[in-house]
Amino acid sequence: MGEVERPRSLSRITVDSDAEYLDAYDHVTYSNSLELLDTIAETQITLNLFMNNKFELAEERMAELYDKSMYHSMGYTCILFIKAVMTVNKQDMEKAAEACKMSVEVIERFRERRSIKETIFGATAKGKKMTDEELHAELCYAQMLLIRAMLTFFHDDNFASFIKGALNIRTCYQTYRYCEKLMNEPSVWVGRNKKVQEQFESGTRMGLGTFSLMLSVLPSKVLRLLEVVGFSGDKVAGMRDLQHVASMTGTLCSPLAKMVLLTWHLIASFVLGTGQPDLEVCKRIMPGLTHLWPRGAIMLFMKARLLLISGDIETAIHYFNMSIESQDVYKQFHHGCYWELLFAHGYQRRWSHAANYARLLMKESKWSRCVYTYLLCIFFAADETVDETKRIETINALAGKVDGLRLRIAGKSIPVEKYCGRKAKRFVATKSLLFAHYEFIYFWNGFDIFGKNPKLVRGVLEDMDRVWQMKKDTVDVDDYCLYYFLKGVSLRHLQLYAQAEECFKAILERESSIKSLTYLPPNATYELAMLRISEQQFIEAQTLLDKARAYKSYSLENKLHFRIHSAMGTMGCRTPMM
């Protein structure tokens, strides 16, 4: 294996060598070997660099051989892809797209040459004639197709690009399935280096496991259609694959699988479901990764998220701030922390703090200035420490901007931005933002997070009751129903089920009179179903969930459908096709 001296590059990273690689930049060796296992080892080193905030070193290390090695090429493209998605910058997107194209070309040079019959009808697992490089080229090809598809969605916002991206995802999944056949064919691995097999298995299982998890959150109507064209969304199988890979110590994908599991339990389960993470799994995974990446911004963020969900909000805020302070190369990582800090302070009703983080996001982040402006507007409206004249003037100015800041992706409006735009328009018409801050927290699963802390829930309830006593004589039906909806949610988390039920029924009794907030009846029906699940009345719960699912054409409809699907899953049911 050839080695050359290169400044600011590192040859080896282990769990116990953190101080060594953080400081020794000038006299370390860099492998220029193109042997398969050596290139994988280099990629593992790069992963550790990246996760320990050495972003430029990581990019430099992968760039050295990215036009010759498929793993270097894939690693380099992944780094550029992460940067492009974070910045939402056109030049970064174009650079990532060009690197992705180059990476596919590099990988294609290593792939097995197939017959016309195999190309048309699909490859079989007769991989015993394949070289180690050809086997891993299939795996790398699948991973690059997924990145190419995601870049297509972000970079081009037209329908044709959406279709192109979808086809890339289908080909990616089929390639993973082919890798699975190779993985399970004993004759393929006779006489091969065990490490080659382990690295291949870990990559294949991680890809399929991640796919299974992502597909499992889709409503059955969509999933069954996807199953017809070969997709599978088995959550249990996906978890099993990822946990298996996590246990494959020494492989490239072992720490990545652990990160996927953390992301699923700490983030995705709230965004795409009812917020029921397996915190015990997270607590088992976390120590090993924090030891490996002790000062990494991403790891500190994950630790903060675990603390937040566990109810330790103050310590979570501390770790979010540690993540921000740990690096300043990728400012976009800060934005994820600002978003979480915004909600963490919101849970504690520190509206001026929440507004400050919304202001920072509005100023620095390009992801959704529409949402950030709306959040600044509603948190400013909630902050009673501000002079009322100034508050009203600022709210009016901000609300007038919200709808004009909406974006389109793949030719479609973003649902949460559409919701913010409608709420801002309603304010312009009615001058009411009553409980808009609590409403947004609800839709972002905030009640499922701080709902575990009765003291915080009672504080929210008392605050709403206080404001309601001042406003109740002047509100319209929509605001009346919003108050009773949020009150019912709070009472449910306090396990005062009979009182909560009265609140939700009050909304449904006035359903025909609601003009703007038409999403309240379906969400109230869903909340009634959650009451029934808490009372273990599963048949009635399923009936209510079916009723909630039958509502059409209201704001954040897909978000409720994800919750319904997740709730059905907790009862062992599938959402019906129609």
From TrEMBL:
<dbReference type="InterPro" id="IPR011990">
    <property type="entry name" value="TPR-like_helical_dom_sf"/>
</dbReference>
<dbReference type="InterPro" id="IPR019734">
    <property type="entry name" value="TPR_rpt"/>
</dbReference>
<dbReference type="Pfam" id="PF10300">
    <property type="entry name" value="Iml2-TPR_39"/>
</dbReference>
<protein>
    <recommendedName>
        <fullName>Tetratricopeptide repeat protein 39B</fullName>
    </recommendedName>
</protein>
<dbReference type="InterPro" id="IPR019412">
    <property type="entry name" value="IML2/TPR_39"/>
</dbReference>
